[in-house]
Amino acid sequence: MFVLFCFCWWSLISVFVALTDEIQSVSVVEGNSVLLRMDVTEIQDDDNILWKFGDDHFLIAKINRDKQIFSTFDGPDGRFRDRLKLDKQTGSLIITNITTEHAGLYQLQIIGAKWSSKTFNVFVYGHLPTPNITRDSSQNLSSSSCSLLCSVVNVGHVTLSWYKGNSLLSSISVSDLSISLSLPLEVEYQDNNTYSCVLNNPISNQTTHLDISKLCHTSPVSLIVLVSAVGSLLIVAAVVMCCICRKCRKTVTAVKTLEEDRTDSSKSRKPKSKANAVYQNVPKKR
Ligand SMILES: *[C@@H]1O[C@H](CO)[C@@H](O)[C@H](O)[C@H]1NC(C)=O
Ligand SMILES: *[C@@H]1O[C@H](CO)[C@@H](O)[C@H](O)[C@H]1NC(C)=O
Ligand SMILES: *[C@@H]1O[C@H](CO)[C@@H](O)[C@H](O)[C@H]1NC(C)=O
Ligand SMILES: *[C@@H]1O[C@H](CO)[C@@H](O)[C@H](O)[C@H]1NC(C)=O
Ligand SMILES: *[C@@H]1O[C@H](CO)[C@@H](O)[C@H](O)[C@H]1NC(C)=O
């Protein structure tokens, strides 16, 4: 009974150790290569080394140095095609141009006189775009502060944050793949603090600094004033144009009248209007 208990306890401990000590996390940015290093030193030449992927333990690579066998496999859906390389010296596995579908558990098994295994948990993160800061045009024109939006498109497993200097103002996190995010910020027009919008995942970040003078140079209020000023100017200009035109027409009429008078004859003395001239000429034609 005691022996059985001891045996059970011992196997439990070894399973526990295998589960805890042998999982190594590896983070990599999409498009890069990752090396899953096999740093087991005591390895025999006739040991078989197997690399397996995923919960279903698909065989993706096999090494037998004694027989000079170095094989890689594409996986059941071909997702590893042209992406796997084996380091013939060390037995390490290299995954090139990694994508999110290659994230997951990779198990290394050494099968020989002595069995051992090691598991790598590979996390693949997307390339981070630079956040884009824009003026929030949907905002209230009567607002006395400048409304801004920091936005990113097609991101997953990221956090988007606004910083004032080095202190965090607000943030939003997303665990889905490929969605768009935006985070608002209100600043005063005369604010001279430094603000930045930061997009980050566990292994990298991208920062865009806010240029208040560029984005918030016109307050909506001054914009209204500007628009009404331009409007009144236009009205004044229109009125002035009207007057000038009327004057023009009058001048033209006057000139015409003068010319008619001159060609008519010098019998009548310079009449002040055409109507006058016609009236004066009428009796002479009779
Ligand atoms: C990397 O993988 C992507 C997606 O499968 C592919 O479009 C691209 O051409 C690959 N790049 C290289 C350098 O192999
Ligand atoms: C930022 O967003 C604006 C408006 O959507 C767009 O015109 C501009 O090209 C974007 N800039 C960058 C760097 O994405
Ligand atoms: C505009 O701002 C005023 C006061 O700041 C607020 O009462 C009103 O609801 C806002 N309107 C919209 C459409 O946001
Ligand atoms: C902006 O900075 C100047 C000096 O750098 C300071 O005198 C002024 O009070 C600041 N304005 C605000 C609104 O913080
Ligand atoms: C962004 O990454 C750099 C190093 O790449 C680090 O020094 C900096 O603290 C990070 N910034 C944030 C806000 O995480």
Automatic annotation (TrEMBL):
Keyword Ubl conjugation assigned: no
Gene3D superfamilies according to UniProt: Immunoglobulins
Family annotation (SMART domains): IG
UniProt keyword terms in alphabetical order: Membrane, Signal, Transmembrane, Transmembrane helix
InterPro entries: Ig-like_dom (IPR007110), Ig-like_dom_sf (IPR036179), Ig-like_fold (IPR013783), Ig_sub (IPR003599), Ig_V-set (IPR013106)
Residue intervals of the Ig-like domain: 129-213
Renumbered residue ranges of the record's region Disordered: 259-286
Membrane-spanning segments: 223-244
Leader sequence residues: 1-20
A family per Pfam: V-set
Listed name of the protein: Ig-like domain-containing protein
Gene source species: Onychostoma macrolepis
